Hints:
Elements: H1 3-14, H2 24-40, H3 45-59, H4 73-76, H5 90-106, H6 120-128, H7 136-146, H8 151-168, H9 174-184, H10 189-201, H11 218-221, H12 224-227
Helix pairs in contact: 2-3, 2-5, 2-9, 3-5, 5-8, 5-9, 6-10, 7-8, 9-10
Amino acid sequence: MTAVNEIIKDEKSLRKRKRRKLSSIGQKIDCKISCLQKGYLSEDSRKQARARADLANLRRGLTAGPGERVEIWRLTQVDVSDNAPDEPTREEFAVHVSMTLYAAHQQSRTKPMHRPAEGLGHAARSVVGYGDDENPSARARFDALVMSSTPRELRRHLRSFVSLLRAKEIPLDYGMLVDDIVCFQRPGGAKAVRRHWSRQYYDFSSTDGESSETDSTAEDICSENSLHNSLTNTKE
């Protein structure tokens, strides 16, 4: 591990980072993944077997669309209105992507790969490094992810980047990620998500002892005031 990454690791352990408030869908996914993770890492063989089977099924959905794999319906189900369109809603897409990515991230790992308050920008900082210790290959993957312009492109780059996090055993907050993916799909949301990840990436230089975004909510990230333009507001 490089000296810079050691510093980042030490700062994370010394500084109390608060988690951004999750939306209702973010809370739901946080709960589902936390339960899966607990079962997967459990010493109870029956619980572990059930969790392993669920994660294996979720991994089969990595390249499928929301609702296309019947065996994971109960794990990726999202409440939708009666007049919802035929195509997946923003929430259905975000939940499917987040759940299947976590399944790939946790595979064969004995440490928890879902960690509250570890946003994508924070995780990127840990794997990319900084200054002379920056990893060019990891930086290229992160840059490609950040510059995604469509949900389909975002999904593809997220899968590539999560594979890198898995290789380095760097965890990620999947409750926060699902909120980010929902926000990304809203008009103007991509800009807000990029800014959010940028703030996380450089968060280790904060001098107040805590993250500057601690009081933000998922809705704040995509609010009209945050974006300074007209966004479509949806009710949870």
